Amino acid sequence: MNNNITYFDKLSANRVKQRRSKKYYWDDITSYCDYFIHEENSVLEIGCGTGELLNGIKAHCKAGIDFSEGMIAEGKRQFPQLDLRVMNAEYLHLNQEYDVIILSNLIGYLEDIQQVFRQLHKVCHERTKVIITYYNFLWEPLLKFGEAIGYKTKTPAQNWLSLDEINSLLDLSGFKVYRNSRRMIFPVYIPLFSELLNNVLGKLPLIRSFSINHFTFARPVIANERDHQKKYSVTVVVPARNESGNIENVIKRIPSIGSHVEIVFVEGNSSDDTWLQIQMMQKKYASTHDIKIAQCHERGKGIAVRKGFEIASGEILMILDADLTVPPEELPKFYEIIASGKADFVNGSRLVYRMDKKAMRSFNLLGNKFFSLVFTWLLDQRFKDTLCGTKVLFKKDYQRLAANRKFFGEFDPFGDFDLLFGAHKLNLHIVELPVHYKERTYGRTNISRFRHGFILLRMCLFAARKIKFK
Questions:
Q1: CA gap 269, 213 in Å, rounded
Q2: What is the pLDDT of residue 399?
Q3: How far is residue 20's CA from residue 420's CA, in Å, rounded to a whole number?
Q4: Buried-most residue among 121, 244, 295, 406 (CB within 10 A)?
Q5: Under the phi-then-psi rule, with left for phi > 0, alpha for psi from -120 to 50, and beta for the rest, what region is 448?
Q6: Could you give phi then psi for residue 287, rounded to 5 degrees?
Q7: What domains, with CATH codes, occur in the chain?
């Protein structure tokens, strides 16, 4: 037993020495994890050493375990505010569930990675997010060379896994991987030079493949994904400008969803009688439908959506464009995905199924494809259609997103980018759902292709500074 403890102490001591001697490298890992963590989160780090990473992140509750008694004792001395315990990751016995679980450059030392992944379920609730950091196996020869010349602390032989192998082990252990990302192509700090390589060149698509650090984001696959029992209340927010002829059809065509459906119409600056129609339809259907109405005197769909979300009472929030180009009959599909726990945020995608001939103009189609490529690169997740008006999320997540809105700026005219960037910052699991896209039968589009396109491009550039080039 004493020999095992000595060996574990050596393993942890090696990891801590590397952290201290390679501060630039470890600070980047800490900073990136911290980007996705919020003050209200509870965080557990498996293999925490003396707790340097935990100490560097913001969270109201921070706990760590490590198999080295020596490291935990040193961590308690340095960071008495942290809850640090001696524990074997293969046999967890904690009486708490955490919002975020971090395994930072640990899996290389584990005897049974799958067993550790399975144990994580003991400390997960249905919306827990797991962040795993690990070396890119392509760097193994360079790291061994660094040890040979004395630049890097020597470590015992490690498991070397590719991203695909890590993803596969998580899948076998009951976790869904929803994002993989890469960072840092030059792990040594040289003023200006390191920033240029890591924060600019290292973000480019092909060069990123050579990054030393891989990050894997996963969530537990909950038992009720296929047969969810809980019924949520739903609010469908319908922003409407010059859509007088569609108001009644919106009400008639929204199906029964969840435990209760609330419809919120938000009219803004119409030149026709849209507001009058909304008022009339609210009275006409008062006995059969729960309808709220509001006016917004500022221009922009995004502002109207925010106003609608503010007065919504449903647990799940949905956006439905009043032009009915996305059929309301498809909303139950969105509900099914989010209510069953398959995702935290559902984004409609109009670019999968065949669309009506006049549903989307050619220039708009090109713009959508361009922004989908930009988002795929920015958020390390494939996007096909970022500007589909139909988006669905939990109200509690929207409230957190709104509280953090200034991080990405508040100049999105439609609200699509605002919601997607905000969901990414909250570390929500975002999925796309293909929808059918129909030609509008009443009125004309409120989109100004060039003016709004430049605003959206500006928002992407602003977000790139916050996400990639930081």
A1: 50
A2: 96
A3: 36
A4: 244
A5: beta
A6: -80, -15
A7: 2-221 (3.40.50.150), 233-467 (3.90.550.10)
